[in-house]
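Hi there,

I know you've been waiting on this one. I reran it after we fixed the sequence typo, so this is the corrected version. Both the input and the resulting structure follow.
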Amino acid sequence: MAFLLTLALRLGKTLQQICNQLSAEELFLWQAYDRESPLCDQRADVLAAITAAASFQAQGAKVTALDLLPTWRAEPPEVDEQEEGEEILRTYLSDRADLQP
């Protein structure tokens, strides 16, 4: 879906126009092109981060381009699967124990 929205923005069309007017073959061609040369703005963000990092590094700052990349979506907190599984098992067993006469 994100690819279709990006393509619609780049072509200046609505999502409905893209879905109605593009053949499957043309859509696959756009997807292949996107893999080679991304249509999204992420490429510009990377270029800007590299340029800014080079400028800061020339001034003596200890930064990398990764430090300067914008974070558009917060990373979900990592959940320890073992602790989560233990909690589910503990809840299940305690519920079952309450059901026993």
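Quick highlight: The helical segments are 2-11, 15-21, 24-36, 42-58, 65-68, 81-99.

Best,
R. S.
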